[in-house]
Protein: Oxidoreductase
Organism: Roseomonas fluvialis
Amino acid sequence: MQADLVSEDWRELLARPEVTAVIIATDEHLHVEPALFAADRGLSMMIEKPLATRLEDSARVLAEIERTGTDAVVGYTQRFRRRWLSAKERVRTGALGEVTMVTSRTLMNRLVALDAYRRAGDRSTVSPMVVSGTHAMDIALWLLDGKMPMEVYARSVDSVLGPQVQGIDGTAGLITFADGAVCQFGMSWALPVAWPAAVYSLDVAILGTSGVLTIDDTHRDIVLATDDPQTEGYAPDKRRLVDFLGSYPPGDMAFGELWGPMREETLGWFDRISLGVATPHATAAEAHRCLMMTKAFDRAAQLGRPVAFPIDATG
């Protein structure tokens, strides 16, 4: 396949008159400038999560998107998996009654964390909540859509990644909402490299006044164990000989292609911008709120006390 242009300068690419849409899939801390440039041109965007790694930058990008009326969505891939769509539909249609509590637990092996800290321009902006917990947080807030968060309480630990890379192992906390609903949230990305989930292993329970819905998204239903290290998946490591297939968001290889939720997310975005159909993509405003919530968890853990939500960008 021949390309019309190959360039190492993203500005040159986005300035071309025939470009009408763009996927911004740079490292997390490099989303801001391309997103601002694309919004100024009015290009439809799909931006990888998070919208930015600094809250003030996220607010700046959101403001420019809203000022220009740009159709911009953010890559929260879990929304394109059947189980989460089914859960959202049951909540949306009232099958559980009024939702009163959501519990969420996320476990990840430390390959993700070590890579995130290695790539970061500023390690102070990297945390398990901002970089990876954001996916599970988006699901929790999506399921609790319409409820107003009021306060966040959280604690973090750094026993493993602290000595290695001055990083955070994991964070756990509680969100309280204006109507009395609560969200219990915890995640760690410091599990041993041998932990079989390539990226995400997630358990969620949604409790309502007239029902409960539990989702086992740990991927333990398809387990691959081999004598030799595999060459596919997230940052393969020779110590990993067991894998939960399906836990890598880009998908699993079959017949030379990746099949998974990112494929569905991308194809859905193509339908959105070409056919105008509604999609479950996270909006830029939802992504900014999600970043603010992950930052609130980090801030509450740092301060050792609850913090009111929403938080300011610099306090």
The chain has a mean pLDDT of 93. The two ends are 50 Å apart (CA to CA). Residues 81-256+291-301 form a domain with the Dihydrodipicolinate Reductase; domain 2 fold (CATH 3.30.360.10).
